[in-house]
Amino acid sequence: MENSYYNPADLAKFGNVTEFQPEMGRKFFDYYGEVFKEGALTEREKALIALAVAHAVQCPYCIDAYSTDCLQKGADETQMMEAVHVAAAIKGGAALVHGVQMMNKVKELSM
Amino acid sequence: MASTVKSLKNQHHQFADPFYQLQVLQQPVKQGETFPAFAEQLLEHGLYPLQPTGTTILQVNVGKMCNQTCKHCHVDAGPDRKEIMTRETMQHCLAALDNSPQITTVDLTGGAPEMNPDFRWFVQEICKRGRQVIVRCNLTIILANKKYYNLPEFFKEHRVHIVSSLPYFQASRTDAQRGDGVFEKSIKALLMLNEAGYGQENSGLMLDLVYNPSGAFLPSGQKSLEAEFKRRLKNGYGIEFNNLFCITNLPISRYLDYLVNSGNYQNYMQKLVDAFNPAAANNVMCRNTLSVGWDGYLYDCDFNQMLELKVERDRPQHINQFNIKQLDDRNIVLNQHCYGCTAGAGSSCGGETVK
Protein backbone atom coordinates (compact mmCIF):
# COMPACT_ATOMS: atom_id res chain seq x y z
CA MET A 1 0.00 0.00 0.00
CA GLU A 2 0.98 3.64 -0.49
CA ASN A 3 1.95 5.53 2.66
CA SER A 4 -0.87 7.98 1.97
CA TYR A 5 -4.53 7.18 1.28
CA TYR A 6 -4.71 9.89 -1.41
CA ASN A 7 -2.08 10.12 -4.15
CA PRO A 8 -2.66 12.78 -6.85
CA ALA A 9 -1.18 10.41 -9.45
CA ASP A 10 -4.04 7.95 -8.77
CA LEU A 11 -6.53 10.32 -10.41
CA ALA A 12 -5.03 9.50 -13.81
CA LYS A 13 -5.50 5.79 -13.03
CA PHE A 14 -9.27 6.08 -12.51
CA GLY A 15 -9.88 4.25 -15.78
CA ASN A 16 -7.92 1.27 -14.46
CA VAL A 17 -10.90 0.22 -12.32
CA THR A 18 -12.02 -1.71 -15.41
CA GLU A 19 -9.12 -4.06 -14.77
CA PHE A 20 -11.01 -5.96 -12.05
CA GLN A 21 -14.50 -5.66 -13.56
CA PRO A 22 -14.36 -4.59 -17.23
CA GLU A 23 -18.05 -4.65 -18.11
CA MET A 24 -19.35 -2.57 -15.21
CA GLY A 25 -16.38 -0.21 -15.49
CA ARG A 26 -16.98 0.37 -19.18
CA LYS A 27 -20.69 0.96 -18.61
CA PHE A 28 -19.91 3.43 -15.85
CA PHE A 29 -17.48 5.42 -18.00
CA ASP A 30 -19.84 5.43 -21.00
CA TYR A 31 -22.58 6.75 -18.72
CA TYR A 32 -20.20 9.25 -17.14
CA GLY A 33 -19.17 10.55 -20.56
CA GLU A 34 -22.79 10.89 -21.61
CA VAL A 35 -23.77 12.76 -18.44
CA PHE A 36 -21.17 15.48 -18.97
CA LYS A 37 -22.06 16.19 -22.62
CA GLU A 38 -23.85 19.42 -23.46
CA GLY A 39 -27.60 18.88 -23.05
CA ALA A 40 -30.31 20.94 -21.39
CA LEU A 41 -27.42 22.14 -19.23
CA THR A 42 -24.18 23.44 -20.73
CA GLU A 43 -20.92 21.61 -20.12
CA ARG A 44 -19.81 24.54 -17.96
CA GLU A 45 -22.95 24.34 -15.79
CA LYS A 46 -22.40 20.61 -15.36
CA ALA A 47 -18.76 21.19 -14.40
CA LEU A 48 -19.89 23.70 -11.75
CA ILE A 49 -22.45 21.23 -10.37
CA ALA A 50 -19.73 18.56 -10.28
CA LEU A 51 -17.43 20.95 -8.44
CA ALA A 52 -20.10 21.61 -5.83
CA VAL A 53 -20.81 17.90 -5.38
CA ALA A 54 -17.07 17.22 -5.18
CA HIS A 55 -16.94 19.49 -2.14
CA ALA A 56 -20.07 18.00 -0.60
CA VAL A 57 -18.64 14.47 -0.86
CA GLN A 58 -15.18 15.84 0.02
CA CYS A 59 -13.43 13.95 -2.75
CA PRO A 60 -9.92 15.39 -3.34
CA TYR A 61 -9.69 13.70 -6.75
CA CYS A 62 -12.96 15.28 -7.85
CA ILE A 63 -12.00 18.71 -6.49
CA ASP A 64 -8.72 18.53 -8.45
CA ALA A 65 -10.47 17.33 -11.62
CA TYR A 66 -13.41 19.74 -11.55
CA SER A 67 -11.45 22.84 -10.51
CA THR A 68 -9.41 22.25 -13.66
CA ASP A 69 -12.48 21.39 -15.72
CA CYS A 70 -14.30 24.55 -14.60
CA LEU A 71 -11.28 26.65 -15.63
CA GLN A 72 -11.07 24.84 -18.96
CA LYS A 73 -14.75 25.45 -19.63
CA GLY A 74 -14.43 29.17 -18.88
CA ALA A 75 -16.07 29.41 -15.46
CA ASP A 76 -14.79 32.30 -13.38
CA GLU A 77 -13.56 32.21 -9.78
CA THR A 78 -16.74 33.80 -8.43
CA GLN A 79 -18.93 31.19 -10.09
CA MET A 80 -16.72 28.42 -8.75
CA MET A 81 -16.81 29.77 -5.18
CA GLU A 82 -20.57 30.31 -5.39
CA ALA A 83 -20.91 26.65 -6.41
CA VAL A 84 -18.89 25.66 -3.33
CA HIS A 85 -21.15 27.87 -1.18
CA VAL A 86 -24.19 26.07 -2.59
CA ALA A 87 -22.62 22.80 -1.45
CA ALA A 88 -21.77 24.29 1.93
CA ALA A 89 -25.28 25.72 2.34
CA ILE A 90 -26.89 22.38 1.55
CA LYS A 91 -24.46 20.48 3.78
CA GLY A 92 -24.96 23.01 6.60
CA GLY A 93 -28.68 23.19 5.98
CA ALA A 94 -28.94 19.42 6.02
CA ALA A 95 -27.35 19.39 9.48
CA LEU A 96 -29.39 22.28 10.75
CA VAL A 97 -32.76 21.08 9.50
CA HIS A 98 -32.30 18.06 11.77
CA GLY A 99 -32.49 20.60 14.58
CA VAL A 100 -36.26 20.39 14.05
CA GLN A 101 -36.07 16.68 14.84
CA MET A 102 -34.06 17.51 17.97
CA MET A 103 -36.62 20.12 18.96
CA ASN A 104 -39.46 17.65 18.40
CA LYS A 105 -37.76 15.14 20.66
CA VAL A 106 -36.95 17.71 23.33
CA LYS A 107 -40.55 18.92 23.33
CA GLU A 108 -41.79 15.34 23.49
CA LEU A 109 -39.69 14.67 26.58
CA SER A 110 -40.17 17.98 28.31
CA MET A 111 -42.92 18.96 30.69
CA MET B 1 0.89 51.04 -23.14
CA ALA B 2 4.33 51.66 -21.72
CA SER B 3 5.68 48.43 -20.42
CA THR B 4 8.71 48.11 -18.21
CA VAL B 5 8.76 44.31 -18.41
CA LYS B 6 11.78 43.16 -20.39
CA SER B 7 11.60 40.41 -22.97
CA LEU B 8 13.39 37.16 -22.16
CA LYS B 9 15.90 38.06 -24.84
CA ASN B 10 16.83 41.31 -23.16
CA GLN B 11 17.00 39.63 -19.78
CA HIS B 12 19.52 37.22 -21.40
CA HIS B 13 17.21 34.53 -20.04
CA GLN B 14 17.94 30.88 -20.88
CA PHE B 15 14.41 30.43 -22.26
CA ALA B 16 15.20 33.04 -24.91
CA ASP B 17 17.43 30.40 -26.49
CA PRO B 18 15.48 28.13 -28.90
CA PHE B 19 18.07 25.38 -28.54
CA TYR B 20 17.65 25.35 -24.76
CA GLN B 21 13.84 25.24 -25.16
CA LEU B 22 14.11 22.22 -27.44
CA GLN B 23 16.40 20.53 -24.93
CA VAL B 24 13.84 21.07 -22.17
CA LEU B 25 11.05 19.70 -24.38
CA GLN B 26 13.02 16.54 -25.07
CA GLN B 27 14.58 15.84 -21.71
CA PRO B 28 13.40 12.99 -19.48
CA VAL B 29 10.69 14.03 -17.04
CA LYS B 30 11.36 11.39 -14.42
CA GLN B 31 13.71 8.46 -14.03
CA GLY B 32 14.75 8.39 -17.66
CA GLU B 33 11.13 8.51 -18.92
CA THR B 34 10.38 10.89 -21.77
CA PHE B 35 7.09 11.80 -23.37
CA PRO B 36 6.51 9.82 -26.57
CA ALA B 37 8.01 11.55 -29.59
CA PHE B 38 5.36 13.52 -31.49
CA ALA B 39 6.56 12.09 -34.80
CA GLU B 40 6.02 8.56 -33.44
CA GLN B 41 2.41 9.41 -32.55
CA LEU B 42 1.85 10.55 -36.12
CA LEU B 43 3.53 7.41 -37.46
CA GLU B 44 1.22 5.28 -35.35
CA HIS B 45 -1.79 7.00 -36.93
CA GLY B 46 -0.51 6.89 -40.51
CA LEU B 47 0.18 10.64 -40.60
CA TYR B 48 3.98 10.58 -40.81
CA PRO B 49 5.64 12.26 -42.57
CA LEU B 50 3.23 15.17 -42.21
CA GLN B 51 2.87 17.02 -45.48
CA PRO B 52 0.96 20.09 -46.70
CA THR B 53 -2.46 19.71 -48.24
CA GLY B 54 -1.78 22.86 -50.29
CA THR B 55 -0.76 26.30 -49.05
CA THR B 56 -3.59 28.82 -49.14
CA ILE B 57 -2.48 31.10 -46.29
CA LEU B 58 0.76 33.04 -45.97
CA GLN B 59 1.27 34.06 -42.36
CA VAL B 60 3.73 36.92 -42.19
CA ASN B 61 5.34 37.96 -38.93
CA VAL B 62 6.21 41.59 -39.63
CA GLY B 63 8.19 42.08 -36.43
CA LYS B 64 8.61 41.27 -32.78
CA MET B 65 8.02 44.80 -31.52
CA CYS B 66 4.89 45.11 -29.40
CA ASN B 67 3.35 47.60 -26.98
CA GLN B 68 2.57 44.73 -24.59
CA THR B 69 4.72 42.10 -22.88
CA CYS B 70 2.25 39.26 -22.32
CA LYS B 71 3.28 36.53 -19.91
CA HIS B 72 2.44 33.67 -22.28
CA CYS B 73 3.83 35.19 -25.50
CA HIS B 74 5.49 32.57 -27.71
CA VAL B 75 7.17 35.34 -29.72
CA ASP B 76 8.79 36.92 -26.63
CA ALA B 77 7.55 40.18 -28.12
CA GLY B 78 7.69 43.53 -26.38
CA PRO B 79 8.61 47.20 -26.67
CA ASP B 80 12.29 46.30 -26.39
CA ARG B 81 12.29 43.98 -29.43
CA LYS B 82 13.68 45.73 -32.49
CA GLU B 83 13.33 42.99 -35.11
CA ILE B 84 11.13 44.51 -37.83
CA MET B 85 10.43 43.32 -41.39
CA THR B 86 11.84 45.69 -44.02
CA ARG B 87 9.90 46.92 -47.04
CA GLU B 88 12.31 44.96 -49.23
CA THR B 89 11.30 41.69 -47.52
CA MET B 90 7.63 42.70 -47.85
CA GLN B 91 8.24 43.19 -51.58
CA HIS B 92 9.52 39.61 -51.76
CA CYS B 93 6.30 38.52 -50.02
CA LEU B 94 4.26 40.40 -52.63
CA ALA B 95 6.27 38.80 -55.44
CA ALA B 96 5.54 35.39 -53.86
CA LEU B 97 1.82 36.25 -53.91
CA ASP B 98 2.05 37.32 -57.56
CA ASN B 99 3.48 33.91 -58.42
CA SER B 100 1.11 31.91 -56.22
CA PRO B 101 -2.56 32.53 -57.00
CA GLN B 102 -3.54 29.63 -54.72
CA ILE B 103 -2.63 31.79 -51.71
CA THR B 104 -5.91 33.52 -50.97
CA THR B 105 -5.16 34.95 -47.53
CA VAL B 106 -2.32 36.84 -45.90
CA ASP B 107 -2.32 36.65 -42.12
CA LEU B 108 -0.31 39.46 -40.54
CA THR B 109 1.07 38.90 -37.08
CA GLY B 110 3.82 40.12 -34.79
CA GLY B 111 4.45 41.58 -32.12
CA ALA B 112 1.93 44.25 -32.86
CA PRO B 113 2.01 44.24 -36.67
CA GLU B 114 0.69 47.80 -36.78
CA MET B 115 3.98 49.03 -35.26
CA ASN B 116 5.89 48.15 -38.42
CA PRO B 117 6.34 51.51 -40.23
CA ASP B 118 5.41 49.85 -43.56
CA PHE B 119 2.36 48.05 -42.19
CA ARG B 120 -0.28 50.18 -43.95
CA TRP B 121 1.61 50.15 -47.24
CA PHE B 122 1.88 46.36 -47.03
CA VAL B 123 -1.85 45.93 -46.34
CA GLN B 124 -2.68 48.19 -49.29
CA GLU B 125 -0.37 46.25 -51.62
CA ILE B 126 -1.83 42.90 -50.57
CA CYS B 127 -5.36 44.22 -51.09
CA LYS B 128 -4.42 45.47 -54.57
CA ARG B 129 -3.64 41.83 -55.35
CA GLY B 130 -7.15 40.80 -54.33
CA ARG B 131 -6.09 38.77 -51.30
CA GLN B 132 -7.89 38.71 -47.96
CA VAL B 133 -5.87 40.28 -45.15
CA ILE B 134 -6.10 39.06 -41.58
CA VAL B 135 -4.52 41.26 -38.91
CA ARG B 136 -3.80 39.80 -35.48
CA CYS B 137 -4.50 43.03 -33.60
CA ASN B 138 -3.82 43.11 -29.87
CA LEU B 139 -6.52 45.82 -29.48
CA THR B 140 -4.58 48.09 -27.09
CA ILE B 141 -2.37 49.25 -29.97
CA ILE B 142 -5.36 51.22 -31.28
CA LEU B 143 -5.18 53.39 -28.13
CA ALA B 144 -1.40 53.32 -27.67
CA ASN B 145 -0.67 56.46 -29.69
CA LYS B 146 -2.63 59.08 -31.59
CA LYS B 147 -1.23 57.77 -34.89
CA TYR B 148 -3.11 54.50 -34.35
CA TYR B 149 -6.51 55.98 -33.43
CA ASN B 150 -7.76 55.71 -37.02
CA LEU B 151 -6.80 52.06 -37.41
CA PRO B 152 -10.45 50.90 -37.24
CA GLU B 153 -11.23 53.10 -40.26
CA PHE B 154 -8.12 51.89 -42.09
CA PHE B 155 -9.09 48.28 -41.39
CA LYS B 156 -12.63 48.95 -42.60
CA GLU B 157 -11.43 50.61 -45.79
CA HIS B 158 -9.41 47.50 -46.68
CA ARG B 159 -11.99 45.00 -45.41
CA VAL B 160 -9.34 43.59 -43.09
CA HIS B 161 -10.42 40.59 -41.03
CA ILE B 162 -9.51 41.38 -37.41
CA VAL B 163 -8.50 38.63 -35.01
CA SER B 164 -7.84 39.84 -31.48
CA SER B 165 -6.77 38.19 -28.26
CA LEU B 166 -9.07 38.59 -25.31
CA PRO B 167 -8.28 35.75 -22.93
CA TYR B 168 -11.28 36.40 -20.72
CA PHE B 169 -14.40 38.49 -20.39
CA GLN B 170 -13.18 39.92 -17.10
CA ALA B 171 -10.21 42.07 -16.16
CA SER B 172 -8.69 39.67 -13.62
CA ARG B 173 -7.58 36.89 -15.96
CA THR B 174 -7.00 39.18 -18.94
CA ASP B 175 -4.67 41.49 -17.03
CA ALA B 176 -2.93 38.57 -15.32
CA GLN B 177 -1.85 37.34 -18.75
CA ARG B 178 -1.52 40.52 -20.79
CA GLY B 179 -0.63 43.23 -18.27
CA ASP B 180 -2.37 45.68 -15.95
CA GLY B 181 -5.04 47.78 -17.60
CA VAL B 182 -5.12 45.74 -20.81
CA PHE B 183 -8.71 44.58 -20.32
CA GLU B 184 -10.09 48.10 -19.95
CA LYS B 185 -8.22 49.32 -23.03
CA SER B 186 -9.23 46.23 -24.99
CA ILE B 187 -12.88 46.97 -24.22
CA LYS B 188 -12.49 50.55 -25.45
CA ALA B 189 -10.79 49.33 -28.63
CA LEU B 190 -13.51 46.74 -29.25
CA LEU B 191 -16.14 49.48 -28.93
CA MET B 192 -14.21 51.55 -31.50
CA LEU B 193 -14.13 48.55 -33.86
CA ASN B 194 -17.86 47.97 -33.33
CA GLU B 195 -18.46 51.66 -34.05
CA ALA B 196 -16.64 51.23 -37.38
CA GLY B 197 -19.00 48.35 -38.17
CA TYR B 198 -16.81 45.44 -37.09
CA GLY B 199 -18.66 42.47 -35.63
CA GLN B 200 -21.99 43.98 -36.67
CA GLU B 201 -24.54 41.85 -38.44
CA ASN B 202 -24.50 42.17 -42.25
CA SER B 203 -21.48 44.53 -42.25
CA GLY B 204 -19.20 41.82 -43.61
CA LEU B 205 -16.49 43.24 -41.34
CA MET B 206 -15.19 40.29 -39.39
CA LEU B 207 -14.08 40.68 -35.79
CA ASP B 208 -13.03 37.41 -34.17
CA LEU B 209 -11.69 37.00 -30.67
CA VAL B 210 -9.08 34.58 -29.43
CA TYR B 211 -9.37 32.86 -26.08
CA ASN B 212 -6.29 31.24 -24.66
CA PRO B 213 -6.13 30.06 -21.08
CA SER B 214 -4.53 32.30 -18.45
CA GLY B 215 -2.76 29.45 -16.72
CA ALA B 216 -1.64 25.84 -16.96
CA PHE B 217 -4.87 24.40 -18.34
CA LEU B 218 -6.27 23.58 -21.76
CA PRO B 219 -9.15 25.33 -23.50
CA SER B 220 -12.33 23.33 -23.89
CA GLY B 221 -15.68 23.76 -25.61
CA GLN B 222 -15.18 26.57 -28.13
CA LYS B 223 -18.87 26.79 -29.03
CA SER B 224 -20.07 26.99 -25.46
CA LEU B 225 -17.37 29.46 -24.50
CA GLU B 226 -18.22 31.62 -27.50
CA ALA B 227 -21.83 31.83 -26.30
CA GLU B 228 -20.64 32.81 -22.81
CA PHE B 229 -18.24 35.46 -24.18
CA LYS B 230 -21.00 36.88 -26.37
CA ARG B 231 -23.42 37.05 -23.47
CA ARG B 232 -20.93 38.61 -21.05
CA LEU B 233 -19.46 41.14 -23.50
CA LYS B 234 -22.87 42.18 -24.83
CA ASN B 235 -24.51 42.50 -21.42
CA GLY B 236 -21.50 44.03 -19.69
CA TYR B 237 -20.18 46.40 -22.33
CA GLY B 238 -22.47 46.33 -25.38
CA ILE B 239 -19.74 44.66 -27.45
CA GLU B 240 -20.42 42.39 -30.41
CA PHE B 241 -18.06 40.09 -32.28
CA ASN B 242 -18.28 37.23 -34.78
CA ASN B 243 -16.42 34.11 -33.63
CA LEU B 244 -14.39 33.01 -30.65
CA PHE B 245 -11.32 30.91 -31.41
CA CYS B 246 -9.95 28.74 -28.61
CA ILE B 247 -6.19 28.41 -28.84
CA THR B 248 -4.03 26.13 -26.72
CA ASN B 249 -0.89 27.69 -25.26
CA LEU B 250 2.12 25.91 -26.72
CA PRO B 251 5.00 25.10 -24.39
CA ILE B 252 7.57 27.46 -25.84
CA SER B 253 9.24 30.75 -24.90
CA ARG B 254 7.56 32.71 -22.06
CA TYR B 255 4.83 30.13 -21.58
CA LEU B 256 7.42 27.35 -21.26
CA ASP B 257 9.28 29.51 -18.75
CA TYR B 258 6.02 29.96 -16.81
CA LEU B 259 5.24 26.22 -16.88
CA VAL B 260 8.71 25.22 -15.67
CA ASN B 261 8.97 27.89 -12.99
CA SER B 262 5.46 27.34 -11.63
CA GLY B 263 6.03 23.57 -11.39
CA ASN B 264 3.30 22.87 -13.97
CA TYR B 265 5.44 21.74 -16.89
CA GLN B 266 5.24 17.98 -16.44
CA ASN B 267 1.49 17.88 -15.81
CA TYR B 268 0.77 20.24 -18.69
CA MET B 269 2.82 18.19 -21.15
CA GLN B 270 1.16 15.03 -19.88
CA LYS B 271 -2.26 16.60 -20.50
CA LEU B 272 -1.25 17.51 -24.06
CA VAL B 273 0.11 14.02 -24.74
CA ASP B 274 -2.93 12.29 -23.19
CA ALA B 275 -5.28 14.49 -25.24
CA PHE B 276 -3.54 13.70 -28.56
CA ASN B 277 -6.29 13.48 -31.16
CA PRO B 278 -5.50 12.02 -34.61
CA ALA B 279 -8.41 13.95 -36.15
CA ALA B 280 -6.90 17.19 -34.87
CA ALA B 281 -3.49 16.09 -36.13
CA ASN B 282 -4.95 15.57 -39.57
CA ASN B 283 -6.20 19.17 -39.66
CA VAL B 284 -3.22 21.08 -38.25
CA MET B 285 -2.72 24.53 -39.73
CA CYS B 286 0.82 23.89 -40.96
CA ARG B 287 -0.75 21.80 -43.73
CA ASN B 288 -2.27 24.87 -45.43
CA THR B 289 -0.19 27.74 -44.02
CA LEU B 290 3.38 28.90 -44.50
CA SER B 291 5.02 31.21 -42.03
CA VAL B 292 7.42 34.01 -42.96
CA GLY B 293 9.73 35.44 -40.32
CA TRP B 294 10.56 39.16 -39.95
CA ASP B 295 13.84 38.50 -41.79
CA GLY B 296 12.17 36.58 -44.62
CA TYR B 297 13.01 33.02 -43.59
CA LEU B 298 10.33 30.39 -44.08
CA TYR B 299 8.83 28.14 -41.42
CA ASP B 300 6.02 25.60 -41.13
CA CYS B 301 4.30 27.75 -38.50
CA ASP B 302 4.81 30.75 -36.21
CA PHE B 303 5.80 28.40 -33.35
CA ASN B 304 8.53 26.72 -35.40
CA GLN B 305 9.62 30.22 -36.36
CA MET B 306 10.20 31.13 -32.71
CA LEU B 307 12.11 27.88 -32.18
CA GLU B 308 14.15 28.72 -35.31
CA LEU B 309 13.11 25.44 -36.95
CA LYS B 310 13.14 26.45 -40.62
CA VAL B 311 11.30 24.49 -43.33
CA GLU B 312 12.87 21.24 -44.49
CA ARG B 313 16.49 21.86 -45.47
CA ASP B 314 16.35 20.99 -49.18
CA ARG B 315 13.40 23.33 -49.85
CA PRO B 316 13.49 27.13 -50.43
CA GLN B 317 14.54 28.66 -47.11
CA HIS B 318 13.81 32.33 -47.77
CA ILE B 319 10.91 34.31 -49.21
CA ASN B 320 13.22 35.57 -51.96
CA GLN B 321 13.48 31.96 -53.20
CA PHE B 322 9.74 31.27 -52.81
CA ASN B 323 8.48 28.40 -54.92
CA ILE B 324 5.11 27.11 -53.82
CA LYS B 325 5.38 23.88 -55.80
CA GLN B 326 8.60 22.91 -54.07
CA LEU B 327 7.33 24.07 -50.69
CA ASP B 328 4.06 22.17 -50.97
CA ASP B 329 6.09 19.05 -51.56
CA ARG B 330 7.88 19.11 -48.22
CA ASN B 331 7.87 17.25 -44.94
CA ILE B 332 6.74 19.44 -42.07
CA VAL B 333 9.31 19.85 -39.29
CA LEU B 334 7.97 18.43 -36.02
CA ASN B 335 8.93 18.55 -32.38
CA GLN B 336 7.36 18.01 -28.97
CA HIS B 337 5.63 21.42 -28.87
CA CYS B 338 3.43 20.18 -31.76
CA TYR B 339 1.36 18.30 -29.16
CA GLY B 340 -0.19 21.70 -28.41
CA CYS B 341 -1.94 21.77 -31.79
CA THR B 342 -3.27 18.22 -31.63
CA ALA B 343 -4.74 18.09 -28.12
CA GLY B 344 -8.48 17.59 -27.73
CA ALA B 345 -10.44 19.43 -30.39
CA GLY B 346 -7.16 20.76 -31.81
CA SER B 347 -5.77 24.25 -31.94
CA SER B 348 -4.82 26.62 -34.72
CA CYS B 349 -4.83 30.34 -35.43
CA GLY B 350 -8.46 29.75 -36.41
CA GLY B 351 -9.29 27.95 -33.16
CA GLU B 352 -10.41 24.33 -32.89
CA THR B 353 -9.61 22.12 -35.86
CA VAL B 354 -12.13 19.35 -35.18
CA LYS B 355 -15.70 20.50 -35.62
TrEMBL record, chain A:
InterPro entries: AhpD-like (IPR029032), AhpD_core (IPR004675), AlkhydPrxdase/COmuclacdeCOase (IPR026445), CMD-like (IPR003779). Residues 22-102 form the Carboxymuconolactone decarboxylase-like domain. It comes from the Bacteria. SUPFAM superfamilies: AhpD-like. NCBIfam families: ahpD_dom, perox_w_seleSAM. This is Arsenosugar biosynthesis-associated peroxidase-like protein. It comes from Pontibacter silvestris.
UniProtKB/TrEMBL annotation, chain B:
The keyword Metal-binding applies. It comes from the Bacteria. InterPro entries: Aldolase_TIM (IPR013785), ArsS-like_C (IPR024521), rSAM (IPR007197), rSAM_ArsS-like (IPR026351), rSAM_sf (IPR058240). Its cofactor is [4Fe-4S] cluster. Residues 60-200 form the Radical SAM core domain. Keywords: Iron, Iron-sulfur, Metal-binding, S-adenosyl-L-methionine. Residues 218-351 form the Arsenosugar biosynthesis radical SAM protein ArsS-like C-terminal domain. The keyword Cell cycle does not apply. This is Arsenosugar biosynthesis radical SAM (Seleno)protein ArsS. It comes from Pontibacter silvestris. The gene is arsS.
